[in-house]
Amino acid sequence: MTPANGGRARQPSLAQLRAFAAVAESLHFREAAAEIGMSQPALSGAVSALEETLGVQLLERTTRKVLLSPAGERVAARARVVLEAVGDLMEEAEAARAPFTGVLRLGVIPTVAPYLLPTVLRLVHGKYPDLDLQVHEEQTASLLDGLAHGRLDLLLLAVPLGVPQVTEIPLFDEDFVLVAPKDHWLGGRGDIPRQALRELDLLLLDEGHCLRDQALDICREAGREEGAPVTTSAAGLSTLVQLVAGGLGVTLLPRTALRVETGRNDELTTGYFADPAPSRRVALAMRSGAARQREFEEFADALRVALRGLPVRMAT
After folding, report:
1. CA–CA distance, 81 with 152 (Å, rounded to integer)
2. How far is CA 49 from the centre of its chain?
3. Contact call for residues 34 and 23 (beta carbons, < 8 A)
4. For the chain, how far is it from start to end, CA to CA, in angstroms?
5. DSSP states of the chain as a string?
């Protein structure tokens, strides 16, 4: 396939790049068309036009599936970079026109969302009424993927992440609390040593939740043996707490979740660790060098003020 203008490739359009990037992501024309709101014939035509413009075959089409050609794999990577740069350009222009307006796509992890979102929403409605906040609750890996590919603008999650090109804006630190059945011997104590975690029947969230990894790190620091029995059978904190109330074991909850998850259950008791208590840090995260960086930093400052009533230690 050769360029139509005698050897010099024409400039591809953004619509062609978006169409091809969508197909390269899903390897399915119908799904790609639905993803970007384009009809399937129009999307197919845009991809064919891009191949004609560049003079290379990008896709291998069969009756059953679509595959990227070797050239298609290279062009797909470049197309994503171009589209992300264009997105940054549009965000820069929008932020320059009027900060705290337009869409803000906020990603939140499940072990933060139910406990902080009411405060976040009150802050946005009261202080930033022109901001169109769109919330996405997902696990950390999915949120980071969304941030990297421009699907999300800002994340609210536990850190550190240790991910290149992601800037963290710390909000607060919060302690973990031991939650146990009501007659448990550690219930009501305020000086639980971490070493107590070595032998307890511990209930944790399913794999993929960062809170599970944090709890396991705490247990390792306490001297719990690698491979010590850990019952994992809950997809969310509410279910986890119900399992504790049923006498199946104990668990660790962040302080911000305590009132919501245990406040109305008489079958539970809590205990607090001796200083320094195990804790986690919650932060906002954005792409390094994001066009709206100053806006996000100001949002973090306002959020710290709004969260002062919670049982946490504000980051400075």
Report:
1. 16
2. 36
3. no
4. 59
5. ---TTSSSPPPPPHHHHHHHHHHHHHS-HHHHHHHHT--HHHHHHHHHHHHHHHTS--EEE-SS-EEE-HHHHHHHHHHHHHHHHHHHHHHHHHHHH-TT-EEEEEEE-TTTHHHHHHHHHHHHHHH-TTEEEEEEE--HHHHHHHHHTTS-SEEEEEE----TTEEEEEEEEEEEEEEEETT-TTTT-S-B-GGGGGTS-EEEEPTT-HHHHHHHHHHHHTTPPTT--EEEEESSHHHHHHHHHTTS-BEEEEHHHHHHHHTT-TTEEEEEBPSSPPEEEEEEEEETT-TTHHHHHHHHHHHHHHTTTSSSEE--
What is the C-alpha separation between 244 and 255, in angstroms, rounded?
A: 17
- The Cα–Cα gap between 297 and 284 comes to 9
Nearest to 259 by CA among 250, 270, 248: 270
Q: Which two tokens stand for residue 298?
A: 């100001």
Q: What is the pTM (predicted TM-score) of this model?
A: 0.69
Cis peptide before 110 (omega within 30 of 0): no
Q: What would the two tokens of residue 205 be?
A: 């969230």
The residues, any chain, with a CB within 8 Å of residue 191's CB and separated by 6 or more, are 272, 273, 274
Q: What is the pLDDT along the chain (316 residues), one digit of tens a residue?
A: 555 554 455 789 999 999 999 999 989 888 989 988 999 899 999 999 999 999 899 998 876 788 999 999 999 999 999 998 888 888 777 766 677 888 899 999 998 999 999 999 999 999 999 899 999 999 999 999 999 999 999 999 999 898 999 999 999 999 999 999 998 999 889 999 888 888 788 888 776 677 777 777 777 776 666 655 555 567 788 888 999 999 888 888 999 999 999 988 889 999 999 998 888 999 999 999 988 899 999 999 999 999 999 999 998 7
